[in-house]
Amino acid sequence: MVRAMPIDRSRDHAGQGAATTVAAHRARRRLRADRARQLADLLRQQTLTGAFHGGTLPHESTLAADYGAGRNTVREALDLLRAEGLVERRPGVGTVVVAHKYPHGLDRLMGLAETLREHGRVTNEVRTMGPAPAPAPVAERLHLAPGTDVLYIERLRRLNGLPLSLDLTYIPLDIGTGLLGADLENTDVFRLLEAVTGQPLGHAEITLEAVSADTHSAAVLEAPRGAAVLMLERLTHLADGRPVDLEFIRFRGDRITMSGLLHRTR
Q1: Of all helices (H) and strands (E), which one includes residue 13?
Q2: Are 167 and 157 within 8 A, CB to CB?
Q3: Which of 141, 199, 154 is nearest to 175 (CA)?
Q4: DSSP annotation of 71
Q5: 3-state secondary structure string, 73-100?
Q6: If exposure means fewest CB atoms within 10 Å of the residue's CB, which of 31, 77, 115, 235 is most exposed?
């Protein structure tokens, strides 16, 4: 007769205890990570709005006391902001703000130079410009027959000399020919469209999403390959409703922030 081996109850209980300790440790780490993200969100908002005097964040102990957080939580939150390139740690000084984001409003139809006029000078480097057959999705959005020529423009836009966005623009050729020879380096397309058509712009449909920078976009924007960029797709219409400007705009996510005023209707 084969005897069953006795069960080592003490070892079993010890194993359960160790597993419980590991699970509890992981739960605490997850909770701290959650709190660090929450704190990073609050500090990011203050960083971007210039709330810290002289661009220097309070000491870690002060932040811990102000927000009721542990020192490790504060350190993790600051690590998140450092990873975003917003702050850096300087010996003998502390944590300082090293990057600024510029606000881009989404509640008014304005060109980039109009939107950022309070923050500096916007210039445009026209990389490509000329007639080209409209890809099917472009022709559809602009209410054109497939294959119809449009004016295609690719511009690198800078704010105070720093690369900010890469704009790909499609304009119906009957309107676009009026832009040939215009001063696109210093003038928003919106102003030129209104001058050429003799009527104001009316409204625009926009879609905003985060995408990874492809090799070309990253090189032009002087951003790391694969970095997150904000992709704004905008179809602009004249006051009479005609679609006249389809744009795909890639913004450097570390230099721009989108904002708007929304109303709840009933």
Answers
A1: helix 9-48
A2: yes
A3: 199
A4: H
A5: HHHHHHHHHHHCCCEEEECCCEEEECCC
A6: 31
Q: What's the token pair of residue 81?
A: 């902001």
Q: Rounded CA gap, 67 and 234, in Å?
A: 40
* Residue listed under structure tokens 């080592």: 8
pLDDT in tens, 200-251: 999 999 999 999 998 999 999 998 878 889 999 999 999 999 999 999 999 9
Token reading at 142: 């602009």
Residue 233's H or E segment, with its range, is strand 228-238
Alpha helices per DSSP H over 95-233: 112-115, 136-141, 173-176, 189-197, 215-221
DSSP strand pairing (102-105 vs 149-159):
unpaired
For residues 79 and 117, give the distance between their C-alpha atoms in angstroms, rounded to a whole number: 33
Rounded to an integer, what distance in angstroms lies between the CA atom of residue 154 and that of residue 129? 6
89-122 pLDDT tens trace: 999 888 998 877 888 888 889 888 888 888 888 8
DSSP run (H or E) holding 64: helix 60-67
The two tokens of residue 47 are 């960083």
Q: What whole-number distance in Å separates Cα of residue 94 and Cα of residue 117?
A: 32
Enter the tokens of residue 164: 């900010």
3-state secondary structure of 3: coil
In the chain the first and final C-alpha atoms are separated, in Å, by 81
